[in-house]
Design goal:
The longest helix has 16 residues. Strands 3-2-7-11-12-13 form a 6-stranded mixed sheet, with no helix packed on it. A 4-stranded mixed sheet has the order 5-4-1-6. A hairpin with an 8-residue loop joins β2 and β3. With 217 residues, it is an alpha/beta fold. The protein starts with a strand and ends with a strand. It folds into 2 domains: 104 residues, Urease, subunit C, domain 1; 83 residues, no CATH class. It is built from 8 helices and 13 strands. α5 runs parallel beside α6.
Length: 217
């Protein structure tokens, strides 16, 4: 069934101009069409419509794949009293007994946190089989990186980068992968500035391979 995702503003990425009241129509795992909602809905009157607040953008690429998934431990909720809820690194990580199974569970939780920040791809080489398996099963793309990213590792791909740098692939054309995210930020003024200032924590939905893999409750 074809689904239309509509938002207050669509940023297609690349050289594409912003589309007020824009929409993306998804068929299976691929994009069917990108454009103004009125045009997309008129072409597909039987489609299911999902409406989101804010800005719809291409899915994000987090440049800190190894740092967040292989050099940090994401505690389970049952460990919160002992370990807290934030990723553990350095001496705190070294104090843990990390098995392959524990690395895999940590990576699965880390991936879920990434999806909640609009991430559809990670950059950097992943060497642990359990971590790579978690990333692959979730459907995230692994991108090569040629330089070490600056700044401390962050779940927010907008941190320390321009919004345009965070978009690995523009939306469309038809037949392209249906990977995108929606952020509940103001649409007046410069939307790229709003995304940088408010950050990826404002994500309300992430679509990966046509599947709604995260929705803020």
């Amino acid at each position: 069934m074809l689904t239309i995702h509509a938002a207050d503003l669509l940023l297609p990425g690349g050289r594409g101009a912003p589309v007020p009241g824009g929409a993306v129509a998804v068929l299976g795992s691929a994009i069917a069409v990108v454009g103004p909602f009125e045009d997309v809905a008129a072409a597909h009157p039987q489609a299911r419509v999902r409406r989101w607040p804010g800005v719809l953008t291409p899915g994000l690429c987090n440049p800190y794949g190894p740092e967040l998934l292989e050099r940090a431990y994401h505690p389970d909720s049952r460990e919160a009293d002992e370990l807290g809820t934030e990723p553990l690194t350095g001496a705190a990580l070294a104090a843990l007994e990390m098995t392959d199974a524990r690395w895999g569970a940590s990576a699965r939780r880390g991936v879920q946190r990434m999806l909640a920040h609009g991430t559809v791809a990670v950059a950097g080489d992943l060497w642990r089989g359990a971590v790579l398996d978690a990333v692959t099963r979730a459907g995230l793309t692994c991108e090569e990186r040629f330089t070490e990213p600056e700044g401390p590792p962050s779940l927010d791909p907008f941190a320390g980068r321009t919004a345009a740098e965070a978009f690995p692939v523009p939306l469309g054309p038809a037949g392209g992968d249906a990977d995108f995210a929606v952020f509940d930020v103001p649409v007046g003024g410069d939307p790229y500035r709003a995304l940088r200032e408010h950050g990826a924590r404002t994500c309300v939905a992430t679509v990966l391979g046509g599947r709604l893999v995260y929705r803020r409750r």
